[in-house]
Design brief:
By secondary structure, the protein is an alpha/beta fold. The chain has a domain of 255 residues: 3-Layer(bba) Sandwich (FAD/NAD(P)-binding domain), CATH 3.50.50. Helices cover 37% and strands 23% of the residues. It is built from 14 helices and 18 strands. The protein binds flavin-adenine dinucleotide. Belongs to the paxM FAD-dependent monooxygenase family. Pfam families: FAD_binding_3.
């Protein structure tokens, strides 16, 4: 098998989580990988991320499980509270153990930059050439048999496969569609907050941070989520509420007072956390309309991650599904034995990834509907259903997809490597 291996030149645009996951996966497939990243350095962009078993199982396969565990926090409980008084609507104890038993991989919380640096280091170990401060302008796939990446510097690079992993404001996507294509507002925004335990004196808050759990508070048109990071030394809070940022503005330093006012009558434990905040970022939450294809006609240029499926963070799947994309793509490219097989691998990637990712995007909007109900009859009905399952193993379609027995298994049970292997082997057997 090794003798027949066809080394491909792959250029990945973007060293975010999608790009680095693809770099590792393609690196393990022994291709020549170059990553072009616009940023001068990998800095603390973003905040906490919830990493679910569909992504964490890949860390084991990629040999970074131990490094990830050292910087993660694994929550032992997941609870949903009514916003106003903190009343528990849903609670799963031994959440960590249950998840590991069901999915053979953990549910963990991390700072985005910690994960990005671990992925970066692994990519470098695998021989990936990561070039920072390399902003691309476009991908030209029309002028020859090979796609060409054109950089802002004027340089242009040719390769066998281009992977567009350049995020929400993707230039690769625009090149593929042949037109400008701005992401669409979802109508919501997120306040992202990270607190350090060393700066907090309140003993109850300190104890909550050092004992990792996940807590949601759900209310009219808004919800909040809080969880620990870095082994219980940091706390991440995301507040989700209606978007009031002007059109065209996607991120802003928020006003702490305005943020506290919005959540002023919420559960006192949440407002005590919010009183610790001295600065906050406000992010407009964007999505995109589904497009017919994530690949070009020649099948040598492909989109992954937020460039093709940005989503509401209400199921914490944006990064997880971007990591899945990278894993599937690289694994499929490991089966390529001649350059003529590239279109086969790219088509298979799209057939495996597009429908799943778009289903997750739709599910995030359903989660918003369920979490953001105004007080009234539907909310009372929802809370009655929540409470009917309290203290039991949930056995009904559940308003929180985080523990729903219908949604959680397909979301968390996905094994990207197995999916890619099964599809490749089946497809190759049909061709013989
Ligand atoms: C409030 C909030 C909370 C979230 N919580 C979670 C969570 O808990 N779990 C989860 O899974 N997801 C979460 N997400 C989503 C997650 O952060 C994204 O889906 C994920 O980071 C997307 O990764 P990406 O690599 O596709 O894009 P990005 O992380 O945006 O990376 C794109 C990279 O491409 C580079 N780039 C851009 N343009 C160019 C160019 N022209 N040339 C070269 N390089 C370029 C950028 O500098 C960047 O490094 C959350 C998002 C938000 C807003």
């Amino acid at each position: 098998m090794e003798d027949a291996h066809q080394k491909l030149d792959v250029i990945i645009v973007g060293a975010g989580l999608a790009g680095l996951a693809a770099a590792i996966s393609c690196g393990l497939a022994k291709h020549n990988i170059t990553v072009l990243e616009a940023a001068r350095q990998l800095t603390e962009i973003g905040a906490g991320l919830q990493i679910t078993p569909n992504a964490s199982r890949l860390f084991k396969a990629w040999g970074i499980e131990t490094e990830v565990a050292a910087l993660a926090a694994e929550p032992s409980l997941l609870a949903v509270h009514r916003y106003s008084d903190g009343k528990i609507l849903a609670q799963e104890d031994a959440f960590d153990q249950n998840i590991r038993r069901k999915y053979d991989a953990p549910f963990i919380d991390m700072h985005r930059v910690d994960l990005q640096k671990i992925l970066y280091k692994r990519a470098i170990e695998l021989g990936v050439d990561v070039r920072l401060n390399h902003r691309i302008l476009k991908v030209d796939d029309a002028s020859g048999s090979k796609p060409r990446v054109v950089l802002e510097s004027g340089q242009s690079l040719e390769c066998d496969v281009v992977v567009g992993a350049d995020g929400l404001w993707s230039k690769c996507r625009e090149s593929m569609l042949g037109k400008a294509d701005a992401p669409l507002p979802t109508g919501d925004l997120a306040y992202r907050i990270v607190l350090e335990i060393d700066k907090i004196t309140d003993p109850e808050l300190r104890s909550r941070i050092s004992n990792p759990e996940v807590h949601f508070w759900i209310g009219p048109q808004a919800h909040a989520v809080g969880y620990s990071l870095r082994g219980g030394t940091m706390y991440n809070i995301v507040l989700l509420c209606p978007d009031d940022l002007p059109p065209g503005l996607s991120r802003l330093n928020g006003s702490v007072g305005e943020m506290q006012d919005l959540f002023t009558n919420w559960d006192p434990i949440l407002t005590r956390f919010l009183r610790q905040v001295d600065s906050v970022d406000k992010w407009k939450l964007m999505h995109r309309a589904e497009v017919p294809s994530w690949t070009n006609i020649q099948k040598n240029f492909v989109l992954i991650g937020d460039s093709c499926h940005p989503m509401l963070p209400y199921l914490a799947q944006g990064a997880n599904s971007s990591i899945e994309d990278g894993a599937v793509l690289g694994r499929l490219l490991s089966y390529v034995r001649s350059k003529a097989q590239i279109p086969w691998a790219i088509e298979l990637y799209e057939s495996l990834r597009k429908s799943r990712s778009e289903m997750i995007v739709r599910e995030t909007f359903h989660q918003r509907d369920a979490f953001h109900m105004p007080d009234g009859d539907s909310q009372i009905e929802r809370d009655t259903l929540f409470l009917s399952q309290l203290g039991k193993e949930v056995d009904a379609k559940f308003p929180s997809r985080w523990t729903c027995p219908e949604v959680q298994p397909w979301l968390y049970g996905y094994d990207a490597i197995k999916e890619a292997d099964n599809a490749a082997i089946l497809s190759l057997s049909k061709r013989c």
